[in-house]
Design goal:
The complex is a heterodimer of chains A (618) and B (227).
Chain A: H1 6-11, E1 35-40, H2 45-48, H3 52-63, E2 67-71, H4 77-86, E3 104-108, H5 115-125, E4 140-144, E5 160-162, H6 169-182, H7 188-197, E6 202-203, E7 208-212, E8 218-223, E9 232-233, E10 261-264, E11 266-267, H8 277-281, E12 286-287, H9 290-304, E13 308-312, H10 322-332, E14 339-341, H11 349-359, E15 366-371, H12 375-380, H13 387-399, E16 404-411, H14 418-439, E17 445-452, H15 469-482, E18 488-492, H16 495-505, H17 511-520, H18 534-543, H19 548-552, E19 567-568, H20 573-584, H21 602-606
Parallel strand pairs in A: 1-2, 1-3, 3-4, 4-5, 9-19, 10-13, 13-14, 15-16, 16-17, 17-18
Antiparallel strand pairs in A: 5-6, 7-8, 11-12
Helix pairs in contact in A: 5-17, 6-7, 9-10, 11-13, 13-14, 14-15, 17-18
Chain B: E1 2-10, H1 19-32, E2 49-51, E3 59-70, H2 76-83, E4 93-98, H3 106-109, E5 112-120, H4 125-137, E6 142-146, E7 151-155, E8 165-169, E9 172-180, H5 189-198, E10 210-217, H6 223-226
Parallel strand pairs in B: 3-10
Antiparallel strand pairs in B: 1-3, 1-4, 2-3, 5-9, 5-10, 6-7, 8-9
The chains are: A alpha/beta (618), B alpha+beta (227).
Chain lengths: 618, 227
């Protein structure tokens, strides 16, 4: 057990990040358990504690009488220094048990820029970074979350990956582990991995070897064990009402990023935006019923004492009976002063009315995501939003009293021209002018945030070559030059980070060495602007003699085998190709949820179906 | 509206949370207990609770006081029964009483806090005694309080109620500090310890100090005795 003395805790910022004991934290006697999990999102406590997936899995695993799950997040730089000086190993927040003593260490991989944190945490835990170097007494390191749709850059650091939704599969892994242990750890580590590989949705990367073509591109997988299946389909929960949700989430003592109840209305989004990986990864749409959601809301308020609830989903405004649900929730919790919020607003006046109803009075800023500056480009990405939609939505918002609007855009999208970039400035100007027209005076603040597009695996743009650094920076300056209204605030991302993310997002196994070298050179918390160390990465690429542009900027031939296609959300290659072609022609595809099926292949491949309570068949 | 006063603790488990976080956890506990809390009027209603005196981060306490208003009267024993099981690790409910009659705000009433400091000795007991004696004898002692914005000079002896009392046992230094809380300010026990170490040569391992608030008083009485 790790003991933290006052001199350590007094020396670091926010010591309560490391002291646990929060309300609803689960404490079990490890000696009485057959299986122990350490669950992590490899970022600082305030970020990690805000992750819904970890909350759910924590509760699912702790429901089992023979299993305990505890939490561990990334120590901040100051704490890491204290731990390294004092040779304190990484520990869990519940029992202060050394992480290396757990049976499993699970990481939720939310975005590529936290890969170095995984390595750093393994190192702090005293766990050999590469699976091949791990001894029999070491935990099995599991990866999950959205990054599993291209696991390869980090494949050598993980014993196994869980593809898709984890509620059922983690419990199956625990069963397999207990059986293996009770049968005398038959076959050692590899013996367990063979059993694990037989579970649907589990990918064991060490059972596969990559072969490359002469030009350096990926060619194919060579299976090394008979358990190595050619395709690993994601796991999906069909019945969202039946599956365990987090009913007793841990309530932190200190403020965190999302310090409120998260009520998950549904999974999936079928709007079909072509840049969006989540839109493919979480298909099909599966809604919870209104009754279930009301019951969950009641339990969550009773069990946490929170007075704030966020109705979360990929696009919450698409919930089939959102209006009714919001009215019911407002009525249910009127006396208790619980406030509700929608994290994602659709661009229409229905959303504004809802937001108005929910916020009642407080007029914080409204956020919309038109994503592109011209209608042509919005059609390319299948955003399905017109300029009229946006102007109507902001008009409704202004009439309700909002004075600040935030607009999200991307640059570097396929077929993009300078006209599309300038279109962002023109659209923002129209949003400003609309305020003046309605209110008869100036006074609105329009914040436009423009990120650099990163093509992702399993999207119609997975073949597309990302813009170069010079091109991104040119476009940023071009846009800047076209913003002349002082009501418009323009912020943009560091294109270097986006290009690195682009290389990692579509990289292959050869990038494992680069990630390792970058970590060795001090890279960590790469997603934190003040911590990002570009030189660590450029040096790492040079040392490994790898050109990042091969992964980020190269347009892939449509026939090239892709190194991520074996851990699949179930989407068919034909659908993605078809969507890419339609994108180039700026041709739209409808939402399969309430109109015709677009044959993406996911429902038949996975044997699942849409659950939409707005549909008769729902 | 009915007002109640509670005496609660801040124990080791939550030693490092801020006063604001402590207030937030009490609010959530009151919600979980389904007590009919009263809220302020206006656009952004907030629960009507008020605390006596903010505790420095890192300090534990047996003497935290909070006034809360309920929208309907409830028997204090009923409130205690509902609230106690909803308190997280690190908070214990010691006493709860209805506030009868009119009283000044808790924060305005308290005028003294009693702290114990326990810190490992790093030298000999005589030097420790000399340091504390010198501090007690000094007519004025100035502490430089550094905040991100500015540095303030604070004369600390005006805030000392009597002498700092020293007791050394088994390589451990125990200090008992009676500190005045005034409308114009006060001094933190950790700041007194820092002065003792750096200006008077108290031979201890300052970074391992454990500070605890034993009592919070108003003219010698606890806030529970005032109502």
């Amino acid at each position: 057990m790790v003991r933290l003395t006052p001199d350590i805790l007094q020396a670091v910022a926010k010591p309560a990040r490391y002291t646990g004991q929060e309300w609803n934290a689960v404490h079990k006697e490890h000696a009485a358990m057959k299986c122990t999990f350490a669950l992590s999102m490899p970022d600082v406590y305030e970020v990690g504690m805000s992750n819904l997936g970890i909350k759910i899995l924590y509760e699912v695993l702790n429901q089992r009488e023979d299993t305990v799950a505890e939490r561990v997040y990334t120590p901040w730089i100051d704490m890491e220094a204290e731990m390294r000086t004092r040779h304190l190993p990484l520990f869990s927040l519940e029992s202060f048990t050394e992480i290396a003593a757990f049976d499993f260490l699970g990481f939720s991989l939310q975005y590529e820029m936290i890969y170095t944190n995984v390595l750093n945490m393994l190192d702090l835990a005293g766990i050999p970074l590469r699976t091949a170097e791990r001894g029999e007494d070491m935990p099995f390191v599991i990866g999950g979350g959205p990054c599993v749709y291209n696991t390869e850059p980090v494949a050598e650091f993980f014993d196994l990956f869980v593809i898709g939704e984890g509620e059922e599969v983690l419990s199956e892994l625990a069963d397999a582990f207990i059986a293996w242990k009770e049968q005398g750890r038959n076959g050692g580590r590899r013996g367990f991995l063979r059993r694990a590989a037989a579970i649907a949705g589990v990918y064991v990367p060490s059972f596969y070897q990559a072969e490359y073509a002469e030009d350096g591109s990926f060619l194919q997988w060579q299976p090394l064990e008979k358990e190595a299946r050619p395709l690993i389909y994601k796991r999906v929960i069909q019945d969202m009402d039946a599956v365990r949700f987090t009913e007793n989430p841990v309530v932190p003592y200190i403020d965190i990023v999302h310090n409120r109840i998260m009520l998950e209305l549904f999974r999936g989004c079928t709007r079909g935006c072509r840049f969006c990986q989540a839109g493919i990864a979480y298909r099909p749409v599966r809604e919870r019923s209104e009754e279930k959601l009301r019951a969950l809301a009641r339990q969550l308020v009773d069990n946490t004492g929170y007075d704030e609830m966020s109705l979360t989903s990929l696009s919450s405004a698409d919930y089939s009976h959102l209006g009714e649900l919001v009215d019911q929730l407002l009525a249910d919790f009127r006396e208790e002063k619980v406030s509700f919020s929608l994290p994602s607003l659709r661009i229409d006046s229905f959303s504004i009315e809802l937001a108005h109803k929910m916020q009642q009075v407080r007029k914080s800023g409204l956020t919309f995501a038109p994503e592109a500056g011209t209608q042509r480009l919005r059609d390319v990405i299948n955003k399905g939003v017109t300029e009229e939609n946006l102007l109507e939505a902001v008009s409704a918002a202004y009439r309700q009293g909002w004075k600040a609007v935030k607009l999200y855009f991307m640059m570097g999208l396929p077929t993009e021209t300078d006209e599309d970039i300038i279109g962002i400035a023109e659209l923002a100007k129209k949003v400003v002018d609309r305020y003046t027209a309605i209110k008869g005076r100036r006074g609105v603040k329009v914040n436009i945030s423009v990120s650099c597009f990163v093509p992702k695996a399993f999207t119609p743009f997975q073949w597309f070559g990302q813009n170069s650094l010079a091109e991104f920076e040119r476009k940023q300056q071009l846009l800047k030059a076209h913003i002349r209204d002082r009501s418009i605030q323009f912020s943009y991302h560091d294109a270097r980070v986006s290009l690195l993310e682009g290389a990692l997002a579509r990289g292959d196994r050869r990038l494992g060495a680069v990630i390792y070298e970058a970590w060795k050179a001090g890279a960590k918390f790469d997603g934190w602007t003040d911590q990002f160390r570009y030189e660590a990465w450029t040096q790492a690429f040079e040392k490994c003699r790898i050109d990042p542009a091969f992964y980020s900027e190269r347009e892939r031939p449509l026939t090239e085998p892709l190194p991520w296609e074996h851990t699949t959300p179930g989407v068919s290659r034909e659908f993605l190709l078809r969507e890419y072609q339609k994108a180039l022609q700026a041709s739209l595809t409808g939402d399969c949820r309430r109109s015709a099926c677009n044959a993406c292949g996911i429902c038949p491949n996975l044997g699942v179906k849409i659950v939409d309570w707005g549909q008769a068949n729902g | 509206m009915v007002k109640y006063r509670v005496e609660i603790t801040k124990d080791d488990e939550i030693r490092y949370i801020s006063h604001l976080d402590y207030a937030a956890l009490m609010q959530r506990a009151i919600c979980r207990a389904h007590l009919p809390a009263a809220y302020s009027e206006g656009f952004n209603p907030h629960m009507k609770i008020a605390f006596a005196s903010a505790l420095a981060v890192g300090v534990t306490s047996d003497a935290e006081y909070m006034d809360m208003e309920l929208s309907e009267p409830l028997d204090p024993s009923v409130i205690a029964e509902r609230l106690a099981p909803q308190l997280p690790a690190g908070v214990r409910l010691k006493r709860l009483k209805a506030v009868e009659g009119k009283h000044a705000a808790l924060m305005a009433e308290v005028d003294q806090a009693v702290y114990s400091v326990e810190v490992p000795l790093q030298g000999n007991a005589e030097d420790a005694a000399k340091a504390v004696d010198a501090f007690n004898a000094a007519p004025e002692v100035v502490y430089h309080r550094v905040t991100p914005k500015k540095t303030r000079e604070i004369e600390v002896k005006q805030y000392m109620q009597g002498k700092a009392a020293l007791h050394v046992a088994e390589q451990s230094v125990h200090l008992l500090l009676h500190i005045r809380i005034t409308s114009s300010g006060s001094i933190k026990p950790g700041e007194i310890l820092a002065l003792l170490c750096h200006n008077f040569g108290l031979p201890v391992q300052e970074s391992l100090a454990v500070i605890h608030r034993q009592a919070l008083l108003s003219k010698g009485k606890t806030p529970m005795e005032l109502i």
